[in-house]
Amino acid sequence: MQIIDGKKIAAEIKAEIANEVKAMIDKGEAAPHLAAVIVGDDGAAQTYVDSIKKNCQTVGFTSSIYHFPADIKEDEFLKAIDFLNADIDIDGYIIQLPLPKHISNDKVLAHVDPAKDMDCFHPANMGNLLLGKDCYKPATPHGTMELIRRAGIETEGKNCVVLGRSNIVGKPLAMMLVQKDANATVTICHSKTKNLKRICAKADILFVAIGQPEMITADYVKKDAVVIDIGIHRIEDPEAEKGYRICGDVNYNDVAGKCSAITPVPGGVGPMTMTCLLLNTLTARKKRQLTINS
Ligand code: NDP
Which amino acids bring their CB within 6 angstroms of ligand 1? Predict the structure, then answer.
């Protein structure tokens, strides 16, 4: 049984990015610049943004954090987005979601310049993804695809089941699997799917993104299938040193004995998300350099 090591693969990609950045700087070009926008004081959001900063440092990117109070008015926030869109020193940025209730997520995401939309949440970028055009790809599904590609998991002609239909994970992942560079046969499941176990147990590759800690047990899995766990949760565990443990949507211990390959949590898909955010920023920087040179 193969344990797919996302930490190792993410480190390899980051080393490749760092080499490209060094070559850019040696040529006198600017380092890629990724900005992150955070509204309010949510601890998890702050941790993610801190991690962006740290990862940018690791690969030689410039990073900026824009922190706004939770009571910022929607029109003021949209003006701040205008500023980021216009700033020629920023290659791309992400907006940490969810935003406070009085700010419309849809309005804000549509306001982001698609060329700087590193999360690929803008409708134009989502549309290009659906059309199979060359475009930024959302970090988690992109990371998932890159992880299995580098781990040597073939998708062509495979029966792939994607559990979850969110706009940030399930739907774009299914869309990427069905494109002609992946050629999978795809079934998408959600909370209203009937006979879920039976459908999952037919999958050659089962992708799980449902936000339900350890729900997927061995009876959802075909023998020798590949299981990709995208879920991530911190659950209380009095026996753990820190009082909690990290787990996915898959019951790893139950499933591991039945499948041919599996991603662990932590250390599977998780590290790939950040890495793909960096990859999008590198792409944005290269596109900007082409404009400067032309
Ligand atoms: P959402 O809550 O937005 O979507 C969950 C999806 O799963 C929905 O489509 C929902 O169906 C479906 N679902 C929920 N419960 C069930 C069930 N019992 N049976 C079948 N389908 C079900 O979650 P996200 O897509 O944002 O995230 C999914 C998981 O991935 C989470 O664990 C999250 O923490 C993790 N995640 C990990 C990332 C990483 O970097 N590794 C990044 C982003 C997310 P319906 O549409 O009908 O409600």
Answer: 140, 163-166, 168-170, 189-193, 196, 209-212, 230-233, 249, 269-270, 273
Residue 76 and residue 154 in one domain: no
Same domain for 98 and 208? Answer: no
176-208 as b/e, with b when 16 or more CB fall inside 10 Å?
bbbeeebebebbbbeeeeeebeebbbebbbbbb
Task: Give the closest residue (by CA) to ligand 1 atom 3.
Answer: 166
161-192 per-position pLDDT tens digit = 999 999 999 999 999 999 999 999 999 999 99
What are the residues whose beta carbons fall under 8 Å from the beta carbon of 223, sequence distance 6 or more? 258, 259
- For residue range 188-241, what is the model confidence (pLDDT) as tens digits? 999 999 999 999 999 999 999 999 999 999 999 999 999 999 999 999 999 999
**Are 165 and 250 within one domain?**
yes
CATH of the domain at 253: 3.40.50.720
- How far does the centroid of ligand 1 lie from the alpha carbon of residue 174, in Å? 13
Looking at the structure, do residues 56 and 152 belong to the same domain, yes or no? no
Rounded to two decimals, the pTM is: 0.96
Give the position, in ligand 1's atom list, of the atom nearest the Cα of 169: 25
Query: From the alpha carbon of 231, which atom of ligand 1 is closest?
Result: 32
Structure tokens given for 136 = 């930024």
